[in-house]
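If you are new to this repository, start here. Below is one unmodified record pulled from the training split, so you can see the exact layout before writing a loader.
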Amino acid sequence: MRKLSEIFPLIPVLAIVAWVAYSFWQAYQPQPAILHGQIEAQQYNISSKVPGRIDQVLVRKGDQVEPGQLIFSITSPELDAKLEQAKAVEQAATAMADQADNGARMQEIAAAKDQWQMALSGSKLAEKTYRRVANLFKDGVLPVQKRDEAYTQWQAARYTADAASQMYQMALEGARDETKRAAYEQVRAAAGVVAEVEAFASDTLVKSHNSGEVTQLLLRSGELAPQGFPVVSIIDMQDAWMVLHVREDQLSQFRKGAEFEAHLPALGDKTFKFKVFHVSVMGDFATWRATDSRTGFDLRTFEIEARPVQHIDNLRAGMGATVVLKQG
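And here is the target side for that same chain:
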């Protein structure tokens, strides 16, 4: 009994010594490294290829949109005027092609024939006049000058008749094949301009090419929208990933294809699995510059991108994430 009574006062002292020893042991144990990341998601800006005034914006923040859904519309009187001009040029080119294909009208052919007949008659008369003058010259009645003048007039009349004959033949044959092809190509060029303007006009009704949630409305109805300026922004949370910045000596745990668990404080105490799909070195301005005492080299920083292995409900861009690195 006496021995027990002597031991009991030492029990608190022994407990304090044990606690202090355990505390020192815990303090010198290596602490797990914790990395902090952030959730990001694919974003899309919806804009128009043509400038104009916003007519209607048909979505609001928080709306879920699907591919092909009408997002907003634009009014552009200038584009409407250009479309009318392009159609008028196309119609004019078509008319020219039809004219080349159909050839001269009957009245034009008849007029060309009459011109030829008239020139032919003039040539025959000039020939007769020359022969009379030539006979008078032989008889010594007229000088050589008169004979030469009559001959020149006959030759000129003959050439005029030949030219009129060629014009008549051209009227009969119609346009050349080359002229017809040139006319057809003019029609094609004009049709291309019309199609181009119509393509721009169709873009005044702007639709979404992707699914997602509306996050921003940058312009409202009645405001001017420059070409290519984003009017609505959407985010697709089905295409979300985590971004981590990992020091070079920790990179072995985040090779491409590796899986790891992360805690998202915004979603409670659960942890979720992520799979690495991209690893890239960051620029020098973002590099971890602390020198490793074992190697003597500066340790660079790598950016890790990892997607959730399974769908995560209520996941939002901007949420923080923590990853505890494995020891050893």
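Two things worth knowing about this chain: The CA atoms of residues 86 and 194 lie 5 Å apart. The first helix runs from residue 2 to 7.
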